[in-house]
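Key result, reporting period 2: structure in, sequence out.
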């Protein structure tokens, strides 16, 4: 999974969260919380704090630029939603005519 998402600037942690988020977008946050082991009694860090502390091994700077990172996640979800919608239209109309018309408009 990581070689596929590495060009987007994501690591395996975000890759796992993206996979689980296809079930529902809100699952992304709980998956990240689980991966970073948030919620223990002696831990006061938030998801935002943990993500800010991540270091990009290539640049040495922060791994996540909030604006770009959020945009990339949204883009992946839009692509998934369009694909899912076209698959449903194809199944319902039993052909490619209407899915292609929708894709082109």
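The corresponding designed sequence is given below.
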């Amino acid at each position: 999974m990581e070689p596929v998402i590495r060009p987007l600037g994501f690591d395996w942690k975000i890759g796992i969260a993206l996979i689980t988020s296809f079930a529902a977008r809100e699952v992304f946050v709980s998956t990240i919380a689980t991966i970073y082991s948030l919620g223990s009694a002696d831990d006061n860090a938030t998801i935002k704090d943990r993500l800010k502390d991540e270091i990009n091994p290539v640049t040495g700077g922060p791994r996540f630029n909030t604006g770009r990172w959020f945009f990339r996640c949204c883009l992946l979800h839009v692509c998934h939603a369009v694909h899912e919608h076209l698959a449903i239209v194809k199944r319902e109309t039993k052909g490619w005519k209407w899915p292609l018309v929708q894709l082109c408009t």
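The helical segments are 2-5, 12-21, 27-35, 47-53, 66-93, 97-104. The mean pLDDT is 76. This case is discussed further under Risks and Mitigation.
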